[in-house]
Amino acid sequence: MQDFRNVDWGPDEAxxxxxxxxxxxxxxxFSEIEEGNIRYIIGRKGTxxxxxxxxxxxxxxxxxxxxxxxxxxxxxxxxxxxxxxxxGFRDKAQFVSIWxxxxxxxxxxxxxxxxxxxxxxxxxxxxKFLLENGLNTESxxxxxxxxxxxxxxxxxxxxSWLDGxxxxxxxxxxxxxxxxxxxxxxxxxxxKNNESSSEYWLFIDELDEGFRAGDQNLRLLLLGLLRAVxxxxxxxxxxxxxYRPLVALRSDIFDRLEDNxxxxxxxxxxxxxxxxxxxxxxxxxxxxxxxxxxxxIPALGNSPQAWEEIVDxxxxxxxxxxVWAFMASRTYDRPRDIIKFLKSCRKHSPSGVLSFDAVKMxxxxxxxxxxxxxxDEIHSYLPxxxxxLQCISRIGYGRFNGAELYKEFRSDRTIAKWLTEEQKEPExxxxxxxxxxxxxxxxxxxxxKYKDEDLAWNPTSELIVHFGxxxxxxxxRSRSSN
Length: 482
Hints:
Strand order of the largest sheet: 2-5-6-1-7
Number of helices: 20
Mean pLDDT: 93
Low-confidence stretches: 166-171
Strand content: 5-15%
Shape: globular
Structural class: alpha/beta
Radius of gyration: 26 Å
Helix content: 40-55%
CATH class of the domain at 28-142 and 187-271: Alpha Beta
Number of strands: 11
Distance between the termini: 36 Å
């Protein structure tokens, strides 16, 4: 047996994790992502979307022929951005031009730094345009938005851009102010005229920042971004550059965008899911644990059973089959969950072996953390989330009839007020808890939507609380367990 305490499970967040390359687990789709054939990663919070982005970003950062830019809505000037929309449109189209302009500016910056770009005249033209308008900084998207707002959405261009003439050498004078929308096609043309063997990556992550369910403006902003990513990808497909946009977006946000154009993205989408079975298929959550064990304990580098080398399954109770089965049933089949649970076990393993007793002692700490994770996901959809979970605690059991829960909802003053204001029924509130995996359906089996996205809600069903939340909510698994 190996010492469980010697395993470095890594930070909770993959962003800026220097050890990620040592224990990154690539699914079969990863090579397609690196080739640019997949450009949208959709998955629940904690499934590893950012880890994929970070793994590629770290590789590109070390490659002399790799360039990248980043976009997130964290600290992004959203209000100023909205003022730059095309007011001639009412739907998502109002944001497509400004997103396309911002994307092309980032690509232009990359070309201006790429010594391997072969069309020097066009590259020089882009450099002069960026310099003249103060866009040649490393500040990225937010800086471009602020510059456009200060200039009333206008940029200085050469008259040759407007006349449709080619500009050569240093003769071009960027003095004519025009609205940015009028030159999107010209910048695209100059980008297309370049050839390079370098990779131009655009990483788009943290799009849930400031997200509020029902925010129509943010919905249109995100739809416009997806449309601009797709438009620029298709436009530059025939160009001799390797443009690689990569968008990471939470599935609960993506699936609620509700737009007919989203179906057109299907060929380029990877929905990130993991399985928690003991058997190790290519999407097995156990591979995540194995990789981190091997990275910390070199002696297990070639072992196909790294997990078994740190865990003691001898004293597992009859209601579960193994330590892994017990732990996995308390997760949402997400890497972040299982890693957090394992980290919580460390202080309860003084012998250096991961035992069932250690896992049981760590369950309180882990359940408290999982509760906060659910809060972060659900609060924008359900402002009375805390009161809703308190109703489950008042029932006291992890398995009950739906009618029992609906009665508790109606008796809670905060929930009753919300139901009236939103013109909702208690069944609607329970369905939201079902959508996020707080509740599942029990029919002799426990069925949760995170395991089957097509699982339909049935308001008359017997309901079951997710095992990972039972400790925090202080409920026993069922009345029969008492």
